[in-house]
Design goal:
The protein is 73% helix and 0% strand. It is mainly alpha-helical. The longest helix is centred in the N-terminal third of the chain and has 41 residues, at 2-42.
């Protein structure tokens, strides 16, 4: 009995020692996350710095401190795990992007977004893949198969437009914000789908049959992934509408929304589909139907909960990328030939810039040909902004590079170490240098317009000057402006001179109100309860 108790205490002691490293790592990251939030708040009005650069800089500084304290043995206390990234960190970011997106602007520009996000990514993919295959021959890189070059094309086709989106105002520049935001999500999905599809095919000898099957596989992944996301979102909306959890507990409906959102991503991974596309469209469907089926308290909770989880995940990723940039194990292989590593980084960065320009400007020209209204066309300054927004590389590129060129975060081959260090160098350079120049560049290209409040006041005064001569004697101008007998008059001058047209959005709203919302709920189709605001039922 005494021996058994002694061995149990020893085992408990051994476990506590092994777990101490994880406790130290988690504690350090929580402290760093808090530091990033505080510093980011203090630098909110900075013209140059944004939260991505702040987190990256703090990560690099922390890596330097760890290097000094461990006498050059390690710069991080957590080993990068691409599965941890794709399963735990990426889903909240992508779901929140779909949940918060302005759906009307997104779907109004859906064809242009798809043109940039799919066709543009494929153009960039081929330029980077073929360019690296030819230019790397001039350097003593080591043996790289054609499949490795295609993998590099998929890795560096994944953009990170966070820095640009932090500068753009969704209300002041709806078209530009919608294009940059939508292309960023579709681009990430396309890059990951491309990367995963490349792993399934033998590309050493490409034939027409392999190319056809590859294209069919891409289309199938896109279609089925989107369909799965829509289906899970509709299922969640139907369950909450029918069972109406808010009668008894708002906690249950909030928990169900969060779990169903995560379920959509895991089901996509289970069926080898694109989890990014699935969870993104699940977020769009949930914001359109499910969010209106819950109580007011649950609406506020879910909106801020999803945004908070996304915010923390983004900071965590940039923190780790900064810490891992100084990993001694990888730089030890490169230190013997630093010129080669610099050359590889320069070639890849040049191909990224070239590949981006090769599709943004031509595809913008094609998109403008299909637009009749000048307001819907992409101006040259907006094209430059879109091009610039896609030059930065981030966590998706990092995760794909680790997946391809490392085993459990470690590498013992020189060529793999060069690819990893080059990826880290490009992420650091593009995020810091391009990120620092993003705010000044956008302010130069697209200066801030007149504040919306003053514009509304001037428009209202103009409208009043037009209506005053038409008023009856003794009629109150304010009453005439605000409408009589419950009839609301148009608040914009454009409404006086335009007539509604039957667009795709018009027919979708008719179908949505007639068939979808009565079944799945949504705005105007929720039953009233004291915890939820009363909404006008759509006839």
């Amino acid at each position: 009995m005494g021996v058994g108790l002694g061995s149990l205490l020893m085992n408990l002691g051994m476990r506590s020692e092994s777990e101490q490293v994880s406790v130290d790592a988690i504690t350090l990251f929580v402290v760093l996350l808090c530091t990033c939030i505080i510093i980011g708040h203090l630098l909110e009005k900075s013209r140059w710095i944004n939260e991505s650069i702040t987190a990256l800089t703090i990560g690099v500084c922390t890596g330097i401190v760890l290097l000094l304290t461990t006498e050059g043995k390690s710069s991080h206390i957590l080993v990068f795990n691409e599965e941890f990234f794709f399963i735990y960190l990426l889903p909240p970011i992508i779901f929140n992007a779909g949940f918060q997106v302005k759906k009307k602007q997104f779907f109004r520009n859906f064809m242009t977004i798809t043109l940039f996000g799919v066709v543009g990514t494929l153009i960039s993919f081929f330029i980077i893949s073929l360019g690296s295959a030819q230019l790397f021959k001039m350097l003593n890189v080591g043996f790289l198969e054609m499949g490795d070059c295609f993998a590099l094309g998929a890795i560096f086709s994944a953009t990170d437009s966070v820095c640009t989106l932090q500068v753009l105002n969704q209300d002041e520049m709806p078209l530009l914000y919608s294009l940059v935001f939508g292309e960023g999500v579709v681009n990430d999905a396309t890059s990951v789908v491309l990367f995963n599809a490349l792993q399934r095919f033998d590309l050493s000898h490409i034939t027409s049959g392999i190319a056809t099957r590859f294209a069919g596989s891409l289309f199938n992944l896109f279609f089925t992934s989107t369909l799965l996301g829509v289906a899970v979102g509709l299922l969640c909306a139907y369950i909450i509408k029918k069972l109406y959890f808010g009668r008894h507990s708002t906690d249950r409906e909030v928990a169900l929304m969060i779990l169903m959102a995560y379920l959509s991503y895991m089901m996509a991974e289970l069926f080898s589909l694109s989890g990014i596309l699935t969870v993104f469209f699940c977020g769009i469907v949930m914001s359109h139907y499910t969010w209106h089926n819950v109580t007011e308290n649950s609406r506020v909770t879910t909106k801020h909960a999803f945004a908070t989880m996304s915010f923390i995940s983004e900071i965590f990723i940039f923190l780790y990328v900064g810490m891992d940039a100084l990993d001694i194990e990888k730089w030890r292989f490169v230190s013997k030939s630093p010129g080669t590593s610099v050359g590889v980084s320069a070639i890849l960065l040049g191909l990224v810039v070239l590949g981006r320009a090769a599709f943004v400007f031509p595809l913008s020209f094609i998109s403008n040909l299909t637009k009749k209204s000048p307001d819907c066309k992409i101006s040259f300054k907006q094209q430059v902004t879109i091009w610039w927004a896609g030059l930065m590389r981030g966590a998706v590129s990092m995760a794909l590079a680790y997946n391809k060129f490392t085993r459990s975060g470690h590498t013992q081959l020189r060529v793999n170490a060069i690819m990893i260090t080059s990826t880290i160098s490009i992420i650091l350079f593009s995020t810091v240098v391009f990120g620092l120049l993003t705010k000044p560049l956008i302010r130069f290209l697209l200066p801030l317009r007149k504040p919306l409040s003053s514009m509304a006041e001037s428009e209202a005064s103009s409208l009043k000057s037009l209506t005053l001569p038409l008023l009856e004697i003794g009629q109150d101008p304010e009453v005439a402006m605000n409408g009589q007998n419950g009839i609301t008059r148009p608040s914009s001058l454009r409404m006086l001179f335009t007539t509604p047209t039957h667009t795709v959005h018009y027919y979708w709203r008719k179908f949505d109100n007639a068939c979808m919302r009565p079944v799945f709920g949504g705005r105007g189709f929720v039953q009233y309860n004291p915890g939820s605001p009363r909404e006008t039922v759509v006839s």
